[in-house]
Amino acid sequence: MKVGIDLGGSHIAIGLVDNGKIVQKDEKVFNKLNIINKKDFIENYIKEYVNANRNRIESIGIAIPGTIVDNIVKKSVNLGFEDYDIISSLKEDFNMEIKIKNDAKCAGIAEFEFGSIKGYKNAVFITLGTGIGGAVFCNGKLVEGNCFSGTEIGHMIIEKNGNLCKCGKNGCFETYASMRVLKTNLKKSLDLNDDVHGEELLQIVKNDMGNEKISGVIDKYIDYLCVGISNLINIFEPDVIAIGGSFIHFSEILLPKIKYTLLNSELLFNKRNDINIKVAELGNDAGIIGSSIL
Ligand SMILES: [Zn+2]
């Protein structure tokens, strides 16, 4: 079997995967560790897990939020890592194939092979969560650059001189259209505490859809989101678009509005009567499944 590892900003999930199905899963949280301790924690946990299941494992894949160059984590803002060669560190302990890739691309690969965009040749996968990431498939192949892996869709500029992004640029898509931005703006407009949980917020919004404050925030959010999505459609003309991340919990509210705005505004170069936009199917497991088949 193959091991898939999903490394998040504050937690790590490991799964044993058999033909796209997770047969065993384990997770740990590592809040508030400095970078050296964080690396130790992650490596020790992976080594422990792999050693305990050694005779069942044929390969390891790692999904990580950040930029990978030549199998080295060039930069992960979420984790605070720079030039981190996690593969060499792990290979000291076990001699098996280990691969690593950006987490959004791993999730996209999982959706492409086993989930919402399976069976399509040209697809765009977008993950809307704390930030925005994505994966693009053209003619059945994942689009990747040479020096850098590319498709950093969260960092396409949609507003010149706009909001400062943590990447250092201004006006990036994710500073307007991540789920974090939507949730923060909803809480602000409703005078809610910052610690109100996503699920709780969703209920508040669902129960009060006539509230002009709520619809104002959502409409503005949808406007920005559709600018970004329309850019992707105009460039790639995919057969299907799937959206994952924490978006899936709000999809009932957001998806019809996205579709309506794309079809009824002046955003699309090629006008059409319908558009194939879906909700991702694999949820939180996409990172594990995708990384296991790298
Ligand atoms: Zn950016």
**Shape, per Cα inertia axes:** globular
Mean pLDDT: 95
Q: How would you characterize the largest beta sheet? A: 5 strands, mixed
Poorly predicted regions: none
In N-to-C order, the SSE pattern is EEEHEEEEHEHEEEHHHHEHEH
Strand line-up of the largest beta sheet: 3-2-1-4-8
First-last Cα distance: 13 Å
* Ligands (ions, cofactors included): zinc ion
Q: Considering DSSP H and I runs of 4 or more, what fraction of the residues is helical? A: 25-40%
> What's the architecture of the largest domain in CATH terms?
2-Layer Sandwich
**Number of DSSP helices?**
9
Overall radius of gyration: 19 Å
Number of strands: 13
Strand content: 15-25%
**CATH level 4 superfamily of the largest domain:** ATPase, nucleotide binding domain
Number of domains: 2
What is the structural class? alpha/beta
Care to describe what's here?
- The protein is an alpha/beta fold and 294 residues long.
- It is 37% helix and 24% strand.
- The protein contains nine helices and 13 strands.
- The chain has a five-stranded mixed β-sheet with strand order 3-2-1-4-8. It has a five-stranded mixed β-sheet with strand order 11-10-9-12-13, with helices on both faces. A three-stranded antiparallel β-sheet has the order 5-6-7, with no helix packed on it.
- A hairpin with a 2-residue loop joins strand 10 and strand 11.
- Residues 155, 165, 167, 169, 172 line the site of zinc ion.
- Zinc ion binds at residues 155, 165, 167, 169, 172.
